[in-house]
Amino acid sequence: MSTPAPSSSRALLVWGVALAAYVVAVLNRSSLGVAGLETTERFDVGASLLATFAVAQLVVYAGLQIPVGVLLDRLGPRLLIAGGAVLMGLGQLVLALATEVPGALLGRVLVGAGDAMTFVSVIRLIPAWFPVRRVPLLTQVTGAVGQLGQILSAVPLVLVLHGRGWGAAFGSLAVLGLAAALVVASLVRDSPDDAGRTHRRRRPGAAGERTAAEVLRARAPRPADGGALRAVVREPGVWLGFWVHFLTPFSSQVVVLLWGFSFFVEGQGRTTGEASALLSVNVVAAIVSGPLLGELAARRPGRRTGTALVIAVAVALAWVAVLGPPGSRPLGVLVAFSVVVAVGGPASLIGFDVARSCVTPARLGTATGLVNTGGFVAALASMLAIGVALDVLAPGGDRDLDAYRWAFALMAVPWVLGVVGLLVSRARTRAAHPGIAL
Fold it and tell me: Highest taxon of the source (predicted)?
């Protein structure tokens, strides 16, 4: 049994604190999804305007991914994670005090901006602190454990919202965000060098314990051509990662971030407790499946994109099983649906691993930012289209299963686009990088 590297405890501490900040970010991101009915009543809005709240948040999130990636390569993850937590805390404070639509929109925009800084920064820390063989698994664990934030929104946040009211629920999120910023600023460091450690001389045979960033740097030095953004945009492997991320998670985000709770209650006739439980099942399934997918990506890199395609097909079939037959579905079918759809979330992280295989460390933040726009572009387009369709199909606000069925059918469009994009970009990546398993 090998002896752990001296930096392992420090690496786990840095990653653990950053991971906790990501849990808080997911809690903030998904808080509106469990408060959809209360949001409608508080601000007197219909489905289209309610969707606009979530879409505004995701537009900011997706739009900032590339700028955040560029800043990440320049400023490092610690500053961005802490700054993101501050922005989310301020956004939730604005939302807690808002009584009109403009204030609510401003709050969600601030939440989206802070959220945009968090995940890509946490992912950027992993190759700086851990050996390359552990990066795919830890990336999946990060994504999976981060989804605990959805459980926090679906259970304790709902309890506070129903028991203490709007202001207390969103005010508590503001305090939590500011506390997360303080802890990150105190304990997270961008790399072992920043933590005050000196490099140890390694024997040639000890390369397996080098961090992923060191291995990639030795393998491919920093390119001498134009800026980071231009180099990343011209890399087909980054676009392959983008399309993997576009295709696999967006319908799960539609369920968790906005329409799932209302669909289960209004469309399927479930109680609010059952709807919260179904959202929690989604999270548990993502947590369980994430590490399994990470281990598969580490051991069988040649199956990464094929796995993403299989999962995308399974998710599509799950939607057909729920929306196709007439009438509401039994609770067991909805549980199975929540499990299958949830796997699309961790499957999207395969996109980051694919992109990491094709770029150098100097471009990794920018590449991660571009990849991370994929699923959120698909999700925000779907959410807005569903909201508009629901208002057209149920103009009085009395949404039934048929209205949800036809509105959700619009998600077939981004699904087809994602499949085509993945297949085309995979062929181009294989031509550009014949030695990389995809």
Answer: Bacteria
Domain that holds residue 106: 9-190+225-431
Residue 220 lies inside a defined structural domain of this protein: no
Neighbours of 428 (CB within 10 A): 13
The H-assigned helical ranges of 259-363 are 260-262, 272-299, 304-323, 331-347, 350-356
- Count the Cβ atoms, other than its own, within 10 Å of residue 93: 20
Residue 319's identity, in one-letter code, is W
Considering the domain boundaries, does residue 209 fall inside one? no
In tens, the pLDDT along 39-64 reads 888 888 777 787 788 778 878 888 89
* Distance (Å, whole) CA 16 – CA 22: 10
- 206 occurs within a structural domain: no
- Rounded Cα–Cα distance for residues 169 and 165 (Å): 6
Tell me how far apart the alpha carbons of residues 148 and 341 are, in angstroms, rounded to a whole number. 16
Q: What is the domain count for the chain?
A: 1
What global pTM score does this model have?
Answer: 0.75
What is the CATH number for 280? 1.20.1250.20
Kindly report the CA angle at 346 between 88 and 216, in degrees rounded to 5?
A: 90
Q: pLDDT by residue (tens digit) across 156-211?
A: 888 888 888 888 989 999 999 999 999 999 999 988 876 654 344 343 333 445 55
φ/ψ of residue 387, rounded to 5:
-60, -45
Dist CA 45 CA 39 (whole Å): 8
Q: Is residue 186 part of a domain?
A: yes
